[in-house]
Amino acid sequence: MNQCLLPIVKVKMPPRDELMPALESVLYGGMIGEGEEVYAFEREFAAQFNLPNALAVSSGTAALHLAFLSCGVIPGDEVITTAMTAEPTNTTILQIGAVPVFADVEADTGNLDPIAVEQAITSATRAICVVHYAGYPADLRALRAIADRHGIALIEDCAHALGAQDSGVPVGTVGDAAIFSFQAIKHLTTVDGGMLTLRNPDRLDAARRLRWFGLAKGVARTAVDIRVPGFKYNMHNVAAIIGRHQLTTIGEAIARHIDNGQFYDDAFAGIVGIAPARVRAGSAPSYWLYTLLCTDADHSSRVEAALLAAGVVAGKLHRPNHLHTVFAPYASAMPGLDRFYARLLHLPCGWWVDDADRRRIAAVVKETLA
After folding, report:
1. What is the predicted pLDDT for the residue at 3?
2. Which domain holds residue 58?
3. Do 26 and 156 reside in the same domain of the chain?
4. Domain tally for the chain?
5. Per the residue annotation, which of 186, 217, 232, 366 is the catalytic one?
6. Is 186 a catalytic residue?
7. CA-CA distances (angstroms) from residue 223 to 204, 211, 227?
């Protein structure tokens, strides 16, 4: 990509003079696998974002796999989910042998529509998997009530939504399980990595065993006993030290995402031909991506082309999952998603977008539709 273009996503690293000495201390300290750096990162991450029972793993996808297993999802179970997400949300369901049941989304947010979710519940439903798409919180109160009413689990995929809140509480605290992603371009990266949180602390020990082949840490290797086969999902100390140093500046970075998102919300309010994605009353997005909704696909294409000509990358970052061959057997009519996706245009919104950049973006969008 032309480096002069303002990108839609960008990797953020801690200051070099702070990170490199810390990395060297781990790399040459004799313990680069899972160890005290990982456990310190778990504690510090959970404390900073007010999350329960955090377990660091090798990826957000690994965290999601453990979340499904921790909530009792087994082959043949149905998981109500969204097609408006990155593909690992739903390939993980297939890998378990469960059945993804795509519920429609709200046409003005891209998030699961609680009415569609309730209509999709059957006797085989074991869980609801909700994605806070692009950092905009879904309606957690409604989804929690549905899950409780039907005796099923609620799992939050918070990969896009670090630092977001709904009804005054952080995302990741309402579901029975939640996951966060530290993949390269997320709010916070450890190069790759993820975090699992569990409401019920009694499930933590089993999840901890599952991330390391089914083995318990802190027990002599000749004395351990595998009861359930696990996975190679542990985080290592090298990733964890990056994560710990990311925590020192992540608050400022997320604050900039939010400030830029709110600037766009104000700038685009009331403009004919476009509308900001709806922010529900009581929710506070963390705007991993800014979601602009145009009148139709033609308007979206026109704005995207105009921004590119002005040196700004914009576009759709995800393909609705039901359009993939592997998910074709589970596809159904989703008019809300069709409407959302046709109008969707993501704008750069992150910490790298300065005041001049965001004013320029807003001006191009408005001029294109004038």
Report:
1. 56
2. 16-246
3. yes
4. 2
5. 186
6. yes
7. 21, 18, 13
